[in-house]
């Protein structure tokens, strides 16, 4: 049986992962994600930090689905079908889509909960947490400092390598 890896061997370092701040807008977040797609990096989420004095603390995770759900909630306050019958370019000129992407990230994020792993933990710990909690993204800490992220696709690649 192959030796189990440590989380730090599978994680995506923060330096290679999209990051925004809680005070940024969804428009800012979309631009950050687009930048990472141009660089051939396939991320569907980003880490959200908040500034507290001179420190930056991890505030939560923002996924593509969170962005879309927020836009939906802000634009579809009337007939649910109306958004899809309008041209996006025409609709953007209206206030609802423009206002929805002006929403602060802190209003759309998934706040951090107790699920995270440390860099020196075995990958099996990350797998157990992801499977039992039904999550696809797991922050990685070194002590109290966030240093990376483990995604479900990273776990799947690891399992595939074991086969």
Summarize the structure.
The protein has 163 residues and is an alpha/beta fold. It has helices at 7-10, 26-38, 64-75, 82-85, 88-92, 95-100, 123-133, 152-162, and strands at residues 12-13, 19-21, 45-52, 55-63, 110-111, 117-118, 137-142, 145-151. InterPro entries: CBS_dom, CBS_dom_sf, CBS_domain-containing.
Overall pLDDT = 82
CATH superfamily: CBS-domain
Please give the largest β-sheet.
4 strands, mixed
Enumerate the spans where pLDDT stays under 50 for 5 or more consecutive residues: 85-90
CATH class assignment = Alpha Beta
Q: How are the strands of the largest sheet arranged?
A: 1-8-7-6
Just name the CATH architecture.
Roll
Kindly provide the radius of gyration, computed on alpha-carbon positions and rounded to a whole number of angstroms.
18 Å
Q: State the shape.
A: globular
| CATH topology category name | CBS-domain
InterPro entries: CBS_dom, CBS_dom_sf, CBS_domain-containing
Domain CBS: 11-83, 108-163
Organism: Desulfosporosinus fructosivorans
Keywords: CBS domain, Repeat
If you had to describe this structure to a student in words, what would you say it looks like?
It contains eight helices and eight strands. By secondary structure, the protein is of the alpha/beta class. A hairpin with a 2-residue loop joins strand 7 and strand 8 (about 145-150). The longest helix has 13 residues, at about 25-40. A four-stranded mixed beta sheet has the order 1-8-7-6. Strands 2-3-4-5 form a four-stranded mixed beta sheet. The protein has one domain (about 5-160): Roll (CBS-domain). The protein is about 40% helix and about 25% strand. The radius of gyration is 18 Å and the shape is globular. The relative contact order is 0.21.
């Amino acid at each position: 049986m192959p030796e189990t890896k440590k989380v730090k061997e599978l994680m995506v370092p923060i330096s290679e992962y999209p990051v925004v701040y809680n005070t940024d807008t969804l428009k800012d977040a979309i631009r950050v994600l687009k930048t990472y797609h141009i660089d051939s990096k396939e991320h569907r989420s980003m880490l959200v930090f908040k500034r507290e004095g001179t420190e930056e603390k991890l505030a939560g995770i923002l996924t593509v689905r969170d962005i879309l759900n927020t836009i939906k909630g802000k634009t579809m306050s009337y007939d649910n079908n109306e958004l899809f019958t309008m041209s996006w370019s025409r609709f953007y000129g209206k206030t609802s889509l423009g206002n929805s992407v002006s929403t602060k990230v802190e209003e759309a994020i998934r706040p951090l909960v107790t699920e995270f792993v440390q860099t020196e933990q075995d990958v099996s710990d990350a797998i157990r947490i992801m499977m039992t909690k039904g999550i696809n993204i797991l922050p990685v800490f070194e002590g109290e400092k966030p240093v990376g992220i483990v995604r479900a696709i990273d776990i799947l690649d690891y399992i595939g390598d074991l086969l």
